Amino acid sequence: MVFSSTDHVQHILWGHPKGRDIIENTYEIVDEYLRKFLASLPEDATIIVMSDHGAGAINGIVYLYNWLAKEGYLRRGQLNLQGALFRKFKDYLRRTLSTRSRKWVRAALSRLRNGLGEAETASSIEWNQTKAYSFGTYDNIYINLMGRNPSGIVKPQDYNGLCEKISIKLLGLVDPKTGDKMVECVYRKEELCSGPYTEQAPDLVVQWRDYTYFTMKGIDKGEADFGDDLKVTASEFPYTGTHRLEGIFICKGPHVRRKHQVRASIMDVAPTALHILGEAVPSGMDGRVLHELFEEGLFQTPTGGDEIPEKKVPIETKEVSPLSEEEETSIRERLKSLGYLD
Predict the structure, then answer these.
(1) Quick check: 117 and 139 in contact, CB under 8 A?
(2) What number of helices (H) and strands (E) belong to the chain?
(3) Which of 82, 157, 241, 279 has the smallest number of Cβ neighbours within 10 A?
(4) What is the mean pLDDT of residues 245-270?
(5) How far apart are CA 316 and CA 151, in angstroms?
(6) Bridge-partner residues for 50, per DSSP?
(7) In this structure, are residues 238 and 230 in contact, taking their beta carbons and an 8 Å threshold?
(8) What pTM was estimated for this model as a whole?
(9) pLDDT tens column, 305-341
């Protein structure tokens, strides 16, 4: 069971004068739903309540695309026709559709949107003169590496030196409003990731000080490095709150130690849940079983080995539209008239 309202309300109302009261009231409502759900479970059930992150205020927005251009690592290009049309399309939807309708369009046209979004970014960069660029949800930094990237220009022998130079400059960033340092640490991908897909991870991952800054590409923000107003398509209101590293973990059950504090990682939830269910934990799974949560001698489940095969279970999905049939038809007709749907 997932409750997303506690996330959304903190993004939007963290900085509101009445935000604290509204946020606390949201948790009380969720608690009531949770109470009803727990009342329907057997008394001997083991319950885990967890969040994937915490929340806190946003101090500012950083446009990494623009910062990289200013520092000479990225050369701006002219948007091609496809990228320019996509930008106009986005602007049109923001002006004419409600938040709920925009969410439907994002879901209905997700593949098209992702492809055009990549085209917008790609055509706004002169790749043969760009050493580094930002991309993705939090716009971390990729090196335009020769032999890996289609238009890579950075030689493999220059890769480490370039990463080091960019990291040093990022660590020197200061908030233009306060003069405080903005970056806590800049990680290389190998410090955070492992496994066969590590190569696809960003080359540099920025940890902003106290997680109080939010990053965006800023392609449409002129040459500004920093901003204050964070607007996203999922909301009619600007975001004033963002994520924090620390979340919560609560476990309750007949064999769980009472009032016992534990330092857990989000990666520990899956192996611990498998352990509670009496299932073997595959040796390749990240995280650990939180043995210290339980009374001694209980849940003694062996750790699995590489012989445990990965099971591919087909998942049936059913799309549920938040719009009425009339609203869907209206939006589809509008998109057809603009040439975005056949």
Answers:
(1) no
(2) 10, 11
(3) 157
(4) 91
(5) 39
(6) 249
(7) yes
(8) 0.74
(9) 444 444 444 444 444 455 566 666 666 665 555 554 5
